[in-house]
């Protein structure tokens, strides 16, 4: 079997069919679809079972709720394919998504990482799609040391526009961090890049993955009491890899600007705190702005100049 497609499923009954139908309509037939029902309290699990009853390529895992990382890890434990791809249950893929990723990998074995562009679609209105970048060439090539350039293109964070070799995941025992509720997929990608020996990345410029952005409230806009500690961990891990990979100095300003952007989000997050008065929120932000930690980031960033 060529590809295992892993889809975590939770509270997805209203949109799951868009996702599954796009997968079962792939031009490449040699895949298994692993639907991981992460203890969803709605009818998502029953819908998964109904698809499995109709198509023998579909396998369903029912498990207690543990979060998206736990669901992806469960899917990895059952994957039988030579390759693995991840798709989120509220997104959908183009008909040639699997075929084009496989073709690029097989025709270009010197590139151990094959990624593709994506496009944002608001509430499934395909006519309003916006690609994350546009380029006239069919492929772009990168080295691992150019990771921050890819970060700037929004290419490195998600696991959903990438083809992974199952052998590398198994050999290195790569898993998504289940103690993180944000950024765990970015850390997984950095660990995979570190483990993959060619260090080369091939990017298909066609937007083959459709990321659905809902107008409803997103987790990104909810208060997170642990946001600063999460960002500290993400920044530290990324910086350690940049040092290990000896990235060129011109890549570092992109990292510094990214870190500054995350700290701006920390300040915005404080203003959403439900247990603090307005005065307390501003006092906390003012203390953070004056801290040595923030001042160090401020000196290194160039995005606000």
Explain the overall architecture:
The chain has 305 residues and is of the alpha/beta class. The chain has 11 helices and 10 strands. Strands 1, 2, 3, 4, 5, 6, 7, 8, 9 and 10 form a 10-stranded mixed sheet that branches. β1 (3-9), α1 and β2 form a beta-alpha-beta unit. α7 (184-195) packs parallel to α8, α8 packs antiparallel against α9 and α9 crosses α11 (292-300). It is globular, with a radius of gyration of 20 Å.
Question: Main attributes?
Answer:
305 residues, alpha/beta, 11 helices
Question: What's this model, at a glance?
Answer:
The chain is 41% helix and 20% strand.
Mean pLDDT rating: 95
Which sequence of SSEs, written as H and E, runs from N to C? Answer: EHEHEHEEHEEEHEHHEHHHH
Beta-strand share of residues: 15-25%
Q: Radius of gyration, rounded?
A: 20 Å
List the helices and strands and how they pair.
Layout: E1 3-9, H1 16-24, E2 31-38, H2 44-54, E3 58-63, H3 68-78, E4 83-86, E5 92-93, H4 97-107, E6 113-122, E7 130-131, E8 139-143, H5 147-152, E9 162-165, H6 166-172, H7 184-195, E10 200-213, H8 227-244, H9 252-270, H10 278-290, H11 292-300
Parallel strand pairs: 1-2, 1-4, 2-3, 6-10
Antiparallel strand pairs: 4-9, 5-10, 6-7, 6-9, 8-10
Helix pairs in contact: 7-8, 8-9, 9-11
């Amino acid at each position: 079997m060529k590809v295992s497609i892993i889809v975590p499923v939770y509270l997805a009954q209203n949109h799951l069919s868009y996702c599954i139908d796009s997968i079962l309509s792939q031009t490449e037939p040699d895949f298994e679809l692993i639907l991981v029902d992460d203890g969803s309290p709605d009818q998502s699990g029953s819908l998964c079972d109904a698809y499995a009853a109709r198509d023998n390529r579909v396998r369903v895992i029912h498990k207690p709720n543990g979060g998206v990382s736990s669901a992806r890890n469960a899917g990895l434990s059952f994957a039988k394919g030579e390759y693995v791809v991840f798709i989120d249950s509220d997104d959908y893929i183009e008909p040639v998504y699997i075929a084009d990723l496989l073709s690029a990998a097989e025709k270009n074995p010197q590139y151990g990482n094959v990624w593709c562009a994506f496009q944002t679609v608001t509430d499934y209105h395909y006519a309003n799609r916006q690609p994350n970048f546009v380029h006239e060439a069919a492929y772009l090539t990168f080295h691992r040391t150019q990771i921050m350039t890819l970060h700037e293109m929004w290419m490195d964070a998600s696991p959903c526009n990438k083809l992974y070799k199952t052998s590398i995941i198994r050999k290195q025992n790569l898993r998504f961090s289940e103690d993180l509720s944000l950024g765990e997929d970015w850390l997984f990608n950095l660990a995979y890049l570190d483990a993959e020996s060619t260090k080369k990345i091939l990017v298909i410029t066609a937007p083959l993955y459709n990321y659905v952005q809902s107008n409803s409230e997103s987790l990104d806009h909810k208060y997170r009491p642990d946001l600063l500690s999460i960002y500290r961990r993400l920044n530290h891990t990324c910086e350690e890899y940049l040092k290990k990979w000896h990235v060129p100095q011109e890549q570092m300003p992109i990292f510094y600007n990214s870190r500054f952007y995350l700290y701006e989000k920390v300040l915005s997050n404080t203003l959403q705190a439900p247990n603090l008065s307005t005065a307390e929120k501003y006092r906390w932000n003012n203390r953070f702005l004056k801290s040595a930690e923030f001042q160090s980031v401020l000196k290194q960033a160039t995005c606000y100049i």
